[in-house]
Amino acid sequence: MRPRGHYRQKARFSCEAAAHLHETPRIPSRHAMLLSLLLILPVFLVIALGVVLDIFSVLPKQTGSIIGGYVLYAALPILMVHILAGSAPGDILHGGFWAAILLSQVILYAVGYCGELLLGKRGHGKAAIIALSGSCCNVAFLGLPVVMSLLPGNKEALVAAGLAVITPNVVSIPCQVQLEYLKLSGKESKGAFARLARAVLLNPLMLGTFAGFALCVTGLGLWGPLDKAAAMVGNTTAPCMLLALGLDLRDRLRVAFSGDTRFGYFRLAATTLLKLVVNPLLAWALLLLFGVTGTWLAVGVIMCGSATALLTYVLAEIYGQVPEEVAMIAVTTNVLNLATLTVLSALLRAQGLLQ
Q: What is residue 10's DSSP assignment?
């Protein structure tokens, strides 16, 4: 027989847990802000190094593109195999984490798309690319290095960040399909979508992810020496990403100012606000709603708080959809990201989610 007052005490604890779930994040102390800044600053110093190397032409002109290609086609896919192959199936099937991160980006995409379509009235193509700019996270080139800097050596954080790297596909792939459809309207489109599907499914990052999933679920893992080699290559991912971002940043800035710099500043401000403020806070709320806590919550918020992915500019240029505006959004969000990620990580630290 349970002791008297047991159920009353249990109900009290449940109420306290619910109150904690919905409490307003505590304002971080100066110490938390400074610590967060010092942990994140090295990430942006490597980006600054890339900018300096570009200004003084220390490296060949195409170095940024070459390093970026190495990361996207080799280092990052190999890192994904290393992370996922050594993970437990329960970790990668973290349904609440997947649902919150994916849903936050989909909601932001829908808000940006409808807002641009109704207020901007410039057509579906421009609405799609502007919406992508406000929802597609720079998880690979910025989010992942920041998580590695904030939580060094934390395997759980690395797994969560690795999974988050592929989540922007939930908005980037539909956007690309729509842009391809608009481009082919009234033209011969035979085989176009088949080529697009092959390009998506045979993307090295997707192949690396599928391979890692398979090795994890089957329990095969990676052969010891091969796993160590994969870890060595994977460890080059973060610095190379940041250096490539810095080397290419001035080119993005030139494109941003090559058109009419008086373009919708309200659009720029609104998209920047959606990407840097609304996205991480929405993700935080959804992660709590789906029962995600601890390191997984912290990593999800940081990844969703990363700036606009540079992929958006590439798509805007390929499909001829306001590349100058998208470049301006990408540059603005990536430059401001030092401040916003510092505040986010300090808030997470104040909640005890970052140690």
A: H
Q: Which residues pair with 137 in a beta bridge?
A: 308
Task: Please give the pLDDT value at position 19.
Answer: 45
d(CA 51, CA 46): 9
Task: Assess if residue 137 is contained within a domain.
Answer: yes
* pLDDT tops 50 at residue 6: no
- 10 in any annotated domain: no
- Residue 124 CB contacts under 8 Å (≥ 6 apart), including other chains: 117, 178, 182
| CA dihedral angle for residue 295, residue 36, residue 137, residue 56, rounded to 10 degrees | -140
Residue 219 belongs to a domain: yes
Query: Pick from 355, 330, 278: which is nearest to 105 by CA?
Result: 278
Give me the residue label for tokens 């110490």. Answer: 31
Domain with residue 234: its CATH number is 1.20.1530.20
Write down the pLDDT at residue 58: 93
Q: What is the DSSP letter of 122?
A: S
Task: Pick the more confident residue, 14 or 243.
Answer: 243
Q: Please classify residue 18 by burial: count the beta carbons closer than 10 Å to its beta carbon, then call 0-12 exposed, 13-18 middle and 19+ buried.
A: exposed
Looking at the 3D structure of the chain, how many domains does it have? 1
Contact present, 319 and 196 (Cβ < 8 Å): no
Provide the mean pLDDT of the chain: 86
**DSSP H or E stretch at residue 157:** helix 155-165
Mean predicted confidence (pLDDT) in 238-249: 91
Who contacts 239 (Cβ-Cβ below 8 Å, separation ≥6)?
A: 46, 145
The rounded percent of the chain whose pLDDT value lies above 70 is: 86
CA distance 50 to 47: 5
Greater model confidence, 258 or 287: 287
Cα distances (Å, whole numbers) of residue 93 to 52, 121, 216, 284, 355: 42, 41, 11, 19, 25
The SS3 assignment for 137 reads strand
Q: What is the DSSP letter of 79?
A: H
Give me the domain span that covers residue 92.
30-349
Least confident of 18-22, 56-60, 178-182, 349-353: 18-22
- Cα-based distances in Å from 14 to 10, 11, 66, 285, 286: 6, 5, 55, 19, 20
Please indicate, yes or no, if residue 174 is contained in any of the structural domains.
yes
Task: Say what the pTM is.
Answer: 0.84
